[in-house]
Write a structure and sequence with these properties.
The chain has 203 residues and is α/β, with parallel strands linked by helices. It contains seven helices and seven strands. Bound molecules: 5-O-phosphono-beta-D-ribofuranosylamine.
């Protein structure tokens, strides 16, 4: 069965684009049924519109505050029939009410480090911290997201890459981002594989 997924975004949306491209090329058996943004007028929303995917922004200020906005977002995702929620650069902590409404639908998130190292940091702060620490490797992680946890759920896919002499935040983040695009597709493929009827049939 082609897995119906929803994608949560906030900014430029290159991870969303990686999913769109993988589906289009036949590398990923999934269908993006909805894109939810925490912000209005993001490049990620434009990517969804260009791809013809239903999408909507849920800014807290225009939706009765954070909890009401996220509850509405979860209800909309369920209403669109998603069976997996992929947080791809979604920049807000999801509240308990979101998880209560989303129920049994799994939620995964992508983070640009080798979790648990350098969790609970955002954007370039992750790569600045890696460089400041003198670590010889970094990477990217796709993990399950649960209520009350931040960058702490079970790891779905993780991939390491070396920190090179002379790396800057810009060079490192670009290499990590390329890895993110690969492992996010791999992670969704794992859920898609589990959704196949044959994968559910006991041997
Ligand atoms: C990625 O680095 C992701 O790991 C982090 O936010 C960034 C989003 O990038 N959570 P994009 O919007 O997918 O280009």
């Amino acid at each position: 069965m082609t897995l119906p997924i929803a994608v949560g975004v906030s900014g430029r949306g290159t991870n969303l684009q990686a999913l769109i491209d993988a589906i289009r090329s036949g590398r990923l058996d999934a269908r993006i049924v909805f894109v939810a943004s925490s912000r209005k007028s993001t490049p990620a929303l434009e990517r969804a519109v260009t791809a013809g995917i239903p999408c909507r922004a849920f800014p807290p200020a225009a939706n009765g505050g954070r909890e009401a906005a996220q509850t509405l977002m979860a209800a909309t995702i369920i209403g669109e029939g998603a069976e997996l929620v992929v947080l791809a650069g979604y920049d807000r902590v999801l509240c308990d009410a979101f998880f209560a409404r989303i129920g049994d639908v799994p939620v995964i998130n992508i983070h640009p480090s080798l979790l648990p190292a350098f969790g609970k940091l955002n954007g370039t702060a992750v790569h600045e911290a890696v460089l400041a620490s003198g670590a010889s490797k970094t990477g990217a992680t796709v993990h399950r997201a649960h209520a009350g946890m931040l960058d702490e759920g079970e790891i779905v896919v993780q991939r390491a890459l070396p920190v090179l002499p002379g790396d800057t935040v810009e060079t490192l983040s670009a290499r990590v981002l390329a890895v993110e695009h690969e492992i996010l597709v791999e992670a969704v493929a794992r859920f898609s594989e589990l959704a196949r009827p044959s994968a559910r049939t006991p041997a």
